[in-house]
Amino acid sequence: MSNSSPNLQSDTNSPVRDSFWRFGSSRKTPGVAKPINNHLPHKFEKFNGNLIPKSKKDIDSSAIFNHNAYTTTTHKIVVENGVISSSTEHTDVTISHGGGGSLDNLNSPDYTSPKTNGHGHHHMSTNVTSENHLSLSSSSTSSLSSSGGDISINKQNAIYNEKASKLKKFEKFLGESNVDLDILKKIGWRGIPEKKRSMAWKILLGYLPSNGERREEILERKRKEYRDCLPQYYISEEKRTDPDKKTLKQIQMDVPRTNPSVPLFQQPIIQEILERILYIWAIRHPSTGYVQGINDLATPFIYVFLSEFVENVEQCTVNTLESSVLAMVEADSYWCLTKLLDGIQDHYTFAQPGIQRMIAQLRGLLETINSSLCCHLAEQDCQFIEFAFRWMNCFLMREIPFLLVIRMWDTYLCEREGFSIFHVYVCAAFLVLWSDELKQKDFPDIMIFLQKPPTQNWQDRDIEDLFSTAHLYRELYHNAQSHLKRR
Fold it and tell me: Which domains does the chain carry?
């Protein structure tokens, strides 16, 4: 953690900057950390000399993710002389991100945060003025419902306009002759529009260059290189060595059970594509070979790159597509998977030291953030490796709905340190999120819960809340890394 300097330096691409958190003293001496203009100071508590939120609900992710503007709504119901009337007031609040993503309005003395419910979602405040004690009639209730419908429509329009504005911004930015990678990471950290995700991911991974004039040439060359290696490595069964046969057999066992909830990956053609990608990668990387979990990491690339050619990937019947399209998707997915795995090679070498290190970091971080939960897990003899290994190996792909995982990868690919650093904080936030439930469970129920947490109804906002919490933990603890240097 920083010294008494008012500015907290961070090397993150996330949008919260040094003006958001200010610490009055070093971490070694008890101090006070205050969010600027914190409208809910009672919801922060002192912990090891810092202030941390008591729970997920105390973090308003709109400060990070609602980048352009939002509207606070006040709905007033007046009951006077037996007549019920209602009015709706909208107040526009704009957050400026110019010049490096600082949240200017958060520092303004005039800024007032909208009220949130227990889960951080914005809700209208309701003021009721009544001269007589009256019950609402059915007609008046219908009138209020109609007004609520208008508010819902306005909210949907605002979301649509925001998405359209973001898409236009990405189209203009990615259309430039030279893409500034740092700026792309800043604007992509909050999510990338679906129509521009394929191009953005390829640039972020280094598969495509920032220079637009060279992209077509490189795409054609890399796709041809992949096509040429197919007959070299994907040979007939009798020509394979015994280790290669064993590798292929394991891949063929894993492919059909990869993302069973996503219909796309149950189509035979897609399974054949996935099998070839995994097998060729394993043969070309003998020091690691194929490891279970790599099959999961290939699927977001296939899905995203297919969306470049198909309007609705979820309803797509792949065998109706041209073979040239599928060949391009396969080649691009292979090279991007290779780029991704190059950054986390130690996750898949002998004894998987990269994953072991991340699990140790998670345990140390949880001891700092939520020692009571850590103690309860220890009392129940719940070893972190028993549930967190899969979290690190597959980056929560089996715990969170697939389409939300793609949204998570937008942020991960925009991280300067890649997946490994920020993902530890995401896992810590994910674990703390279920703290109250876990403290009431014994070992078998804890393991069942953590292997299949109740995230099936999650939406984008839940991921934004999770990332907000994870970002906060990193701001508080990343520069005081005693918990990351253990073991």
Answer: 66-174 (no CATH), 205-337 (no CATH), 353-484 (1.10.472.80)
